[in-house]
Amino acid sequence: LECNIAKAKDYMARFAAEGVMNHIDGASVPAISGKTFETISPVDLGKLAVVAKGGEADIDAAVAAAKAAFPAWSKMPGAERRKILIKVAEAIEARAEEIAFTECMDTGQALRFMSKAAIRGAANFRFFADQAPHAENGEVTRTPTQMNTTSRRPIGPVGVITPWNTPFMLSTWKIAPALASGCTVVHKPAEFSPMTAKLLVEIAESAGLPKGVLNVVNGFGEDAGKRLTEHPDIKAIAFVGESRTGSMIMAQGAKTLKRVHFELGGKNPVIVFDDADIDRAVDAATFMIYSLNGERCTSSSRLLVQNTIYEEVCNRVAAVAKRIKVGHPLDPETVVGPLIHPEHESKVLSYFDKAREEGATIAAGGEKVGDQGCYVAPTLFTQATNDMAIAQEEIFGPVLTAIPFKDEEDALRIANDVQYGLAAYLWTNDLNRAMRMTDELQAGMMWVNSENIRHLPAPFGGVKASGIGRDGGDWSFNFYMETVNVSFPR
Ligand code: NAD
Predict the structure, then answer these.
(1) Other CB atoms closer than 10 Å to residue 471's CB: what's the count?
(2) InterPro entries attached here (predicted)?
(3) Do residues 402 and 391 lie in contact, with contact meaning Cβ atoms separated by under 8 Å?
(4) What's the pLDDT band for 460 if we cut at 50, 70, 90?
(5) Distance (Å) from CA 298 to ligand 1 centroid
(6) DSSP string of 282-330?
(7) Could you say which DSSP state residue 54 is in?
(8) Mutation to probe ligand 1, out of 51, 113, 161 (largest number of atoms < 8 A from CB)
(9) Ligand 1 center to residue 241 CA distance, Å?
(10) How many other β-carbons are positioned within 10 Å of the β-carbon of residue 221?
(11) Burial class (CB in 10 A: 0-12, 13-18, 19+), 171
(12) 263, 295, 345, 451: which is the annotated catalytic residue?
């Protein structure tokens, strides 16, 4: 740990000295207003760096750069764009340790997960780069009198607005397909975690990405974020964040008829029937809520267990929760690090009080850990009912709410009785039941007898208040490109 902390200090030194600047048209620049804010580490609430506080003028400058860079980037043959984006992937891999350490200090996420997330960022670039050469291709359809040629073209400069949970990986998930499509980008990272967005743009430009193709403006949602969503030259907004922010962005973008893609909140059920492989179900359920600090949109935050095995499963989950190592994010043994920020920590702690008020039982955790930094104990609420706030609201921490159910019908009713519909996890050894249940579950993504394993060609996204649109495979390209049809007489 001591050695990792020393390494992190070295990686942070430049940010401490220079601050986290905006990055516009290939240059690192302060906010035009000269304003700054601080980013702190949730490890000890110490200041990591001052950050440029971008506003309208900075967004306007970044959009102008993205607009100027668009003709050359969009007209570059896809095979050439592919080469550059593969170089970006290689450059990310070469600096994966720096990215992971920076992310750990800025967000509190444990190193064991952030090392993988940095590599996943490179994989995202590789995957989407490989599709760039044929992204424009469509199809030809003929009638006796007409020939229709359908193809796609990049939509234009786009805005990418990201949250603070695994910010590097999530940003690449949006930015890589946008660039592969031929779009140019203005990225507004979350104010709680600005550091790795700066690393990404630097890495990308050092690997050959032309200036102005990717621009970063730091700042807050209500000014920098809002202006980006309202800017007439921004053709689409890819947003990841809370459902209520999505709804604000939709309103803000209405005037300019913005195309929007939303990845929003979740309250995802993991449903365990008594015929399931209980060992594996417990492993998966605990992994899906207690990894990444539970600050994960697809976390299994509601555990629905058949009443015949409810007590046994809850006892086992509570035992796992109590054994989990909470600690410094750079400690290789740590599973749960500090939550992102004191504000978010207060939100999570408030649910411990709510659970008590609502009459649930706290079977594990339910308290702050230590008196320094934003550490909370992995928590399990039992004897909960689905109408409680702890079952309905996204807590976004290592906090699991366990609810018993009677049969299939009851499980479905409870699972679907939330505003969200991002992911669902189902554990049963009855194939027919699995088919009946997955037919009725309201979720954009379901995993049967499995934890969340991401396959990049498969669609990713939610229904209900969890999102609009799909990422992954060709779905990403459909968002960043316009489909155009030209009809010729025969
Ligand atoms: P948030 O909505 O508070 O902020 C996300 C981003 O939006 C930030 O960059 C913020 O500055 C910006 N923003 C805020 N108000 C804005 C406005 N009016 N106009 C433009 N931009 C604005 O979300 P958060 O707290 O940073 O992130 C956590 C949330 O993200 C959780 O709800 C989580 O479920 C969700 N999330 C969803 C997915 C998914 O794939 N569905 C993935 C990761 C995170």
Answers:
(1) 21
(2) Ald_DH/histidinol_DH (IPR016161), Ald_DH_C (IPR016163), Ald_DH_CS_GLU (IPR029510), Ald_DH_N (IPR016162), Aldehyde_DH_dom (IPR015590), DH_HpaE (IPR011985)
(3) no
(4) very high
(5) 14
(6) HHHHHHHHHGGGG--TT---EEEEETTTHHHHHHHHHHHHHHSPB--TT
(7) -
(8) 161
(9) 2
(10) 18
(11) buried
(12) 263
Q: What is the ipTM of this complex?
A: 0.95
CA 243 – CA 263 distance, rounded (Å): 8
What percentage of the chain has pLDDT greater than the value 70? 100
- Known active-site residue 90: no
Tell me the C-alpha distance between 349 and 398, whole Å: 11
Would you state the pLDDT for residue 172? Answer: 98
Name the pLDDT band for 312 (thresholds 50, 70, 90).
very high
Give bridge partners of residue 188 from the DSSP assignment: 161
Report the nearest-CA residue for atom 8 of ligand 1. Answer: 190
Range scoring the smallest mean pLDDT among 1-5, 65-69, 83-87, 175-179: 1-5
CA of 53 to the centre of ligand 1 (A): 18
Decide: 195 and 102 in contact? Cβ < 8 Å: yes
Do the Cβ atoms of 110 and 378 come closer than 8 Å?
no
Q: What pTM, to 2 d.p., does this model score?
A: 0.98
Q: Is the CB of 194 under 6 A from ligand 1?
A: no
User: Quick check: CB of 467 below 6 Å from ligand 1?
Assistant: yes
The pLDDT of residue 178: 98
Q: In the prediction, which pLDDT does 83 show?
A: 98
What is the predicted pLDDT for the residue at 53?
98
Task: State pLDDT tens for residues 5-33.
Answer: 999 999 999 999 999 999 999 999 999 99
Ligand 1 center–CA 75 separation, angstroms? 32
Q: Ligand 1 in contact with 396 (CB < 6 A)? A: yes
Q: Do 194 and 166 form a contact (C-beta atoms < 8 A)?
A: no
Q: What does the buried/exposed string (b/e) look like for 111-135 if buried means 16 or more CB atoms within 10 Å of the residue's CB?
A: bbbbbebbbbbbbbbbbbbebbbeb
Does the Cβ of 165 fall within 6 Å of ligand 1? yes
